[in-house]
Amino acid sequence: MGNCDLCGTIISPGAKKYPASQFRELVKAGLRPPDSLWKMALLESGGMASKTEWEAGWIQMVQQDTSDWALCNSCVAEAESYKS
Questions:
Q1: Three-class secondary structure of residue 2 per DSSP
Q2: What residue ranges of the chain have pLDDT lower than 70?
């Protein structure tokens, strides 16, 4: 078991995985993590970053990441809506 790479929910070993290049395209098309992830990061950082700043950092991290992204069923449904 692991966690969804987009929202952090616990997922099964057979969860759908997106190659890094495909996930980057989904993010380029507008896929973003849920607000709950930003709010958790905000609490952990003591409120240092705005949502816009945090999201820009997240997008930069996605663009540099080369690993597969495993997603829960809910995030798969969201991700699929960004496919062209």
A1: strand
A2: 38, 42-43, 45-48
Q: Where are the domains of the chain?
A: 2-80
The Cα–Cα gap between 39 and 41 comes to: 5
Strand locations in 1-84, DSSP E? 2-3, 10-11, 16-18, 69-71
Are 35 and 43 contacting, i.e. CB atoms less than 8 angstroms apart?
no
Contacts of 6 (CB under 8 A, 6+ apart): 31, 33, 34, 37, 69, 71, 72, 75, 78, 79
| Model pLDDT for residues 17-41, shown as the tens digit of each residue | 999 999 999 999 999 998 877 677 7
